[in-house]
């Protein structure tokens, strides 16, 4: 995930050999979902850009799922 800390957009790279849909949820540190999207990645893509410009400054968790794999990453919005 890049950049971290972020101001406008974060980019996530992932492996998608089977062209499976990707979904993600961003949580604040209180555990509330603040942004989510299903089928977020384009077919034959291995990069997803997520707009974080409307999120308040602070720390967040990004949980994304592709196929049966769930990945959690933390990031900061400045």
């Amino acid at each position: 995930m890049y950049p971290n800390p972020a101001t406008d957009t974060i980019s996530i790279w992932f492996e998608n050999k089977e062209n499976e849909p990707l979904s993600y949820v961003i949580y604040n540190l209180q555990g509330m979902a603040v942004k989510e999207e299903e089928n977020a990645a384009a077919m034959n893509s291995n990069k997803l850009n997520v707009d974080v410009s409307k999120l308040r400054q602070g720390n967040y968790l990004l949980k994304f799922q592709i196929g049966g794999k769930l990945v959690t990453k933390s990031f900061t919005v400045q």
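The beta strands are 9-13, 22-28, 33-37, 47-51, 58-66, 69-77. The two ends are 15 Å apart (CA to CA).
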